[in-house]
């Protein structure tokens, strides 16, 4: 059966075996909401991540698996299955699937269909960042691009394996935009904001040749050898910013307090404990083009750190004398020489978020403040600290821009894209 213009367009979705496979359920819902039809084919490995039942319930169609049974073949030949589609979408396109596609292997239904199709193919890769950066994958992507395959993503962010970098499946709404663009006959796929299709392509890496210095995480200020003053900062936002800046081509130095996160891929990480150590590390890492102070630096430290563990004395509470820590951000922003072109601060507030942020912009002398509400709720002690999402307002000398609640990676990508644009001006 050949599709005609009066029939809804049909997508043949090849689902590869990756942790991101669960996202294709959302993608199928979005595709069908647009009035398009979608039929899914799963590789054997995809079955480890989504079930034919869940895929079938969102496609509203039979799901074809690794083995093409005689009954299936009688109902619809495998060549017909691929010809029946207007567009073939591979999501997630794993490193293995891309390698098979690039070399024309056809050892299961998915790869046989990919070899048999004469329709446009859109691939949405998702894999570990080192697999994406590997020369073999780079070669396969280059070959497939030359063969006419269109790529969407991957994007930068945190991975299921706990690392940061380029390798995440493009978000389903961005894949849908790419599908509609290709169905409309256009081949220019707009990259989602902050996404870099090919890390080797310097044209898409707006911070190439720039040095970005990021502080992240809390600081720990010792009281005695076993106790310290700390806060609930997880470092997720600062680390995501460092990863996004690296993905945008910058050389990145990340000065981080104690966190339970892996160092982002491709950044130089310097581990510190206290505010004064952080200040020293920042001074040593200068100069930079952009300074982003995302760390929750302790405002105070103990003025008298005990050499031995303090003892409980009956009924009496030891007094703690606090002294103020150096303000690292203000020091960088107000430097007489070597001030970075852009200095960005964060404002974690629990009340009057915007008013405090405006005051901070002026007081610290930075170019941009990213303000967020860290007030606590019953469900999330510590508020946004440690959470995966954030709601921020950007305050600069021209006004306020409020962003919707987003994942910290998405905020990082958008912030980096905006800073790259500011720097280019
Ligand atoms: O003054 P406040 O802690 O609210 O300001 C927050 C901003 O200032 C953040 O960007 C933080 O990284 C930075 N800061 C700093 N050194 C300090 C205190 C805060 O760099 N001692």
CATH superfamily membership of the largest domain: CoaB-like
CATH topology of the largest domain: Rossmann fold
Bound molecules: cytidine-5'-monophosphate
Largest sheet: 8 strands, mixed
**Kindly, what is the distance between the CA atoms of the first and last residues, rounded to a whole number of angstroms?**
54 Å
What portion of residues belong to β-strands?
15-25%
Q: What strand order characterises the main sheet?
A: 12-11-8-13-16-17-19-20
**Proportion of helical residues:** 25-40%
- Whole-number count of domains: 2
Broad shape = elongated
**What is the gyration radius calculated from CA atoms?**
25 Å
- Mean pLDDT figure: 87
**Total DSSP E strands:** 21
The helix/strand class is alpha/beta
Ranges where pLDDT stays below 50 over 5 or more residues in a row are 191-203, 377-382
The number of helical segments is: 14
In brief, what are we looking at here?
This protein has 425 residues and is an alpha/beta fold.
List the helices and strands and how they pair.
Elements: E1 10-15, H1 23-33, E2 37-42, H2 52-59, H3 70-75, H4 78-83, E3 87-93, H5 95-103, H6 109-116, E4 120-125, H7 129-133, H8 135-146, E5 150-151, E6 155-158, E7 164-168, H9 172-183, E8 211-216, E9 221-222, E10 228-229, H10 236-247, E11 251-256, E12 268-271, H11 275-285, E13 290-293, E14 300-302, E15 322-324, H12 328-333, E16 342-349, H13 353-364, E17 368-373, E18 389-390, E19 392-396, E20 399-402, E21 406-407, H14 408-424
The structure holds cytidine-5'-monophosphate.
The site of cytidine-5'-monophosphate has 14 residues, from helix 12 and strand 16.
